[in-house]
Design a protein that fits this description.
The radius of gyration is 22 Å and the shape is globular. The chain is of the alpha+beta class. The protein has 2 domains: about 45 residues, no CATH class; about 250 residues, BirA Bifunctional Protein, domain 2 (2-Layer Sandwich), CATH 3.30.930.10. Strand 6, helix 9 and strand 7 form a beta-alpha-beta unit. An 8-stranded mixed sheet has the order 1-4-5-10-9-8-6-7, sandwiched between helices. The chain is built from 11 helices and 10 strands.
């Protein structure tokens, strides 16, 4: 909340320690009950005309401009390309409050918090990470050395509160995300196998949906963090596509880009069109979310996603 607004509320209520009382003296459950009652009473004062006016003026409430039939067909095609061991799940549109801002550097003000101690989904990958952690916990309870990875995929509509300057971005948008969780197997085996699987999946997807003559080239970009040696991981990917003239590679060591979100290595896949416009469609990398959630430094997690609304706004999908 803006400090000026907070100061104005304190001045109006004449309770100088109002924020401290609400934060430190009330539990989440008590605060929820208080806010539910306040919103009940405030909402009772609204009428039809106010609701319509607010709907018309709020950028948060406007429907998407993406054709829902085209979008559903794209989703089904994406799902059909998933490796067999990925499990497709439907996530809730809500997650515990703090999910996004605690696991990632996204500020809580850019997330829609609810008075039910939940927040509207803002990042599919960290919600999938929670589900992976839940499932890994069950696995590890049965066998502490379980090496069988959890592989999940979901398509989810997300919401972000911050304004976007790019006309191709909107307050709510859809993302198809992949998440692979497992245990460190030594010699970068987990990282090698699963990074290859994610990137191959997305390149295969782009091959299926993009008109070849519209594509000047595809960039696979790597951003490295810390003192990790990612040479083997990157060279493996480069070798897989050594026969592809239109695929190019970029690498940025000791990067600051995404440093507080990803650990070790981030990858992005972009398409450069014939007009030299570059569109970053796919974003992914390794995170420490499950190791933190399970308090186990041996846990590994790779997440990735593609924004399908953004994709449909910027390219012509090849007829299937």
């Amino acid at each position: 909340m803006n400090q000026k607004i907070t100061d104005a509320i304190i001045k109006k209520t004449k309770i100088p320690n109002l924020i401290n009382l609400l934060v430190n003296r009330l539990s989440f459950g008590e605060l929820q009950s208080l806010l539910l009652k306040i919103f009940e009473l405030k909402t009772a004062k609204k009428d039809n005309s106010i609701i319509l006016k607010e709907y018309q003026s709020s950028r948060f409430a406007q429907p998407s401009d993406v054709n829902p039939v085209v979008h559903r067909k794209l989703e089904l095609m994406i799902f059909s390309l998933l490796p067999d061991d990925f499990k497709l799940i439907e996530l809730s549109p809500l997650t515990p409050i703090g999910t996004t801002s605690i696991l990632t550097p996204i500020h809580q003000n850019n997330v829609v918090s609810t008075i039910r101690n939940m927040e509207v989904a803002a990042d599919t990958t960290n919600i999938l990470a929670l589900e992976c952690a839940k499932r890994r916990k069950i696995q590890l309870k049965k066998d502490r050395k379980n090496l069988h990875p959890i592989k999940l995929c979901s398509s989810q509509r997300l919401f972000r509160g911050q304004p976007f300057e790019n006309k191709n971005f909107s307050a709510h948008f859809n993302v198809v995300a992949l998440c692979t969780a497992g245990k460190d197997e030594g010699n970068d085996k987990f990282e090698m196998i699963n990074l290859e699987e994610h990137i191959l999946f997305y390149i295969n997807l782009l091959d299926k949906i993009m008109v070849e003559k519209d594509v000047k080239h595809i960039n696979i970009k790597f951003f490295e963090y810390g003192e990790f040696d990612n040479t083997g991981l990157i060279e493996n990917i480069m070798e897989k596509f050594s026969h592809r003239e239109k695929i190019r590679f970029k690498n940025e060591k000791n990067s600051e880009f995404g440093k507080n979100y990803y650990t070790r290595l981030r990858f992005m896949i972009s398409v450069v069109d014939q007009g030299n416009q570059e569109f970053d469609y796919i974003d992914g990398g390794f995170t420490d979310w499950t190791s933190g959630l399970l308090s186990n430094n041996k846990e590994r997690l790779l997440t990735s996603g593609i924004g399908t609304d953004f994709l449909l706004r910027t390219i012509q999908i090849k007829p299937q």
